[in-house]
User: Which sequence fits this backbone?
């Protein structure tokens, strides 16, 4: 890439030259009405359509005529059955007074006829016709008016051609293939349309700082190129769903004031082989025409997975062709200067190494979930157009929503606004946010009738979860207990930390397992039986215990070795032996059994507090944090 910078006129925009693109004069040549000059093939098709349509129209408007011999013609004339005749040479056409049946085929009935007069006939035909009152006309009785011939002869063809060229033009090219399969489906957003800037992005300041340099380069390329620097050709945004990766890309385009092309990686793939690579070429060609520009590819892992797997056929070949074309466009023989690719993915670990090397996606920006301060800023952004009651404490809401990302917080604000509108509030209140958070985290309340026995069992189940959460050191504080059915659960116990956690020690994880087994243990201690109510608890317990053993090295039998890979290709032979797998299962079972015994023992030792919590739940159905700790007689420990 080369750029020319004015030394005196600072307002002059930077000039870009994109290698591999046609000269500006060539690119600005006038095109035809349909986007490019019509080819000879199109003209031939149009002429053939007109000819076929004219022939078919003539057949449609050609009415049935009865073919009479000259003798039969004279008989019907003398019988007074002919109304008018028209002659062209020796061919006589005419119309009956009333429809007649064909003498040779009685099923054919028509009021028109045709006959051939012999050249040697000398029968004084005109006098015969006049004597029988037949009108002799010089106009063809079947002749259609000219405007009808024009309308029905050319109208259908013109309509068909208009539809044909409209579809062709919409596809983007007169030679773009059937339905424009080879054309890119990327949506182009101009900087002036729905402009998004960094002011609309909050809570991910580290990622914004990484992208600020990209914006500065697009605005002032000469600042970097004069020193021999080159801007990264690609920026990969990775992070959990909803953290704001797409919003960040739009903000970069809005700040830089350049065209922004957005497409999902899955839109490159089609059932026709080769279409994906064609769409990639078309996308980059369109971006080069308006360079500098930004191309945003969402969910890059749909086509960017590592190549060379055990299975490679069909859709895999098409995906690899598309990936190869992206690699070529980003850093191939012909440059793509002025076009910066920003991609987003939730799984950067599965991407092909060729994508990650310098010269393609030079920078990898991790978009992490926001901390408490970031969540507060996100809430402030999403509540800018929401009328809030003065009592609303956004800081308290941010503190109560650990782990939530930008999309979750936006949904929380929307649910709170909908709830306030449903209750007829003029402004959104703190209670609306609290109820909306409960609806999102715990689920929507269900109006079902439970028997007294099932209600009591549910109360002890939730009391078991809550009591262990209060007693275990380092456990997340209990925020709410309820035996009101929500979602798929008959009761819920909500726990959340006072501050964000980024690392977990073994004792904390064991406490999570013990707390999750508290409901099953309470049923066992009180009723001596267990039910299916602990299904979700057991799934959570198994996941934590298996990760402790196979991922985090928290088992002495396995040691500090990662033996579980969730991203492993299922068609590739695992690197772990069967004996190790058996050892993993044994260790997981040992951890869970130890935690369950600890849960049962703790609840037996604090049976009085368990009964008190269960009875309070049966009376009130829902207990908040202060009520729960007060009834259990446990002082709430506040973490630093």
Assistant:
């Amino acid at each position: 890439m080369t750029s020319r910078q004015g030394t005196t006129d600072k307002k002059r925009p930077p000039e870009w030259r994109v290698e591999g693109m046609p000269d500006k004069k060539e690119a600005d040549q006038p095109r035809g009405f349909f986007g490019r000059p019509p080819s000879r093939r199109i003209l031939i098709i149009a002429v053939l359509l007109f000819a076929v349509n004219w022939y078919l129209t003539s057949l449609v408007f050609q009415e049935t005529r009865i073919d009479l011999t000259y003798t039969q013609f004279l008989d019907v004339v003398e019988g007074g059955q002919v109304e008018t005749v028209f002659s062209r040479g020796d061919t006589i056409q005419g119309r009956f007074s009333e429809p007649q049946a064909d003498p040779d085929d009685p099923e054919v009935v028509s009021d028109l006829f045709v006959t051939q007069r012999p050249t040697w006939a000398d029968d004084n035909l005109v006098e015969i016709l006049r004597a029988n009152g037949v009108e002799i006309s010089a106009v063809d009785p079947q002749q259609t008016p000219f405007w009808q011939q024009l309308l029905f002869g050319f109208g259908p063809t013109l309509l068909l051609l208009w539809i044909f060229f409209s579809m062709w033009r919409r596809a983007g090219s007169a030679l773009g293939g059937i339905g424009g399969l080879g054309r890119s489906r990327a949506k182009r957003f101009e900087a002036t349309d729905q402009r998004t800037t960094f002011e609309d992005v909050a809570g991910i300041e580290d990622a914004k700082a990484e992208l600020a340099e990209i914006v500065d380069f697009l605005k002032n390329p000469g600042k970097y190129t004069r020193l021999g620097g080159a801007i990264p050709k690609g920026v990969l945004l990775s992070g959990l769903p909803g953290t704001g990766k797409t919003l960040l890309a739009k903000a970069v385009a809005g700040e830089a004031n350049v065209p922004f092309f957005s497409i999902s990686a899955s839109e490159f793939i089609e059932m026709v082989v080769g279409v994906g690579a064609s769409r990639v070429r078309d996308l980059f060609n369109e971006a080069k025409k308006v360079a500098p520009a930004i191309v945003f590819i969402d969910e890059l892992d749909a086509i960017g997975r590592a190549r060379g797997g055990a299975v490679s056929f069909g859709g895999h070949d098409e995906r690899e062709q598309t990936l190869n074309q992206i690699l070529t466009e980003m850093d191939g023989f012909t440059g793509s200067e002025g076009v910066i690719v920003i991609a987003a993915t939730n799984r950067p670990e599965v991407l092909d190494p060729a994508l990650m090397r310098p010269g393609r996606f030079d920078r990898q920006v991790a978009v992490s979930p926001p901390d408490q301060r970031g969540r507060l800023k996100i809430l402030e952004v999403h509540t800018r157009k929401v009328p809030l009651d003065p009592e609303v404490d956004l800081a308290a809401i941010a503190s109560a929503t650990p782990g939530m990302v930008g999309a979750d917080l936006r949904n929380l604000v929307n649910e709170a606004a909908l709830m306030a509108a449903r209750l007829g509030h003029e402004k959104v209140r703190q209670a609306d946010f609290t109820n909306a958070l409960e609806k999102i985290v715990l689920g929507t309340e269900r109006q079902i009738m439970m028997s007294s026995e099932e209600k009591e069992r549910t109360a002890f189940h939730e009391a078991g979860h809550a009591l262990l959460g209060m007693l275990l050191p380092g456990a997340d504080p209990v925020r709410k207990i309820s035996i009101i059915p929500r979602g798929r659960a008959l009761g819920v116990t909500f726990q959340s930390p006072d501050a964000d956690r980024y690392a977990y020690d073994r004792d904390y994880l064991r406490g999570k397992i013990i707390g999750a087994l508290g409901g099953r243990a309470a049923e066992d201690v009180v009723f001596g039986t267990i039910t299916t109510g602990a299904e979700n608890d057991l799934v959570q317990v198994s996941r934590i215990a298996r990760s402790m053993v196979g991922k985090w090295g928290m088992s002495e039998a396995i040691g500090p070795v990662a033996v579980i890979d969730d991203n492993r290709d299922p068609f590739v032979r695992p690197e772990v032996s069967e004996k190790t797998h058996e050892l993993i299962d044994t260790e997981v079972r040992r951890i869970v059994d130890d935690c369950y015994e600890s849960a049962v023992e703790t609840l037996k030792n604090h049976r009085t507090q368990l009964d008190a919590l269960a009875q309070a739940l049966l009376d009130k159905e829902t207990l908040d944090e202060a009520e729960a700790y007060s009834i259990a007689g446990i002082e709430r420990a506040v973490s630093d």
The domain at 187-366 is CATH 3.40.50.300 (Rossmann fold). The chain has a mean pLDDT of 78. The longest strand covers residues 91-101. The chain is about 45% helix and 10% strand.
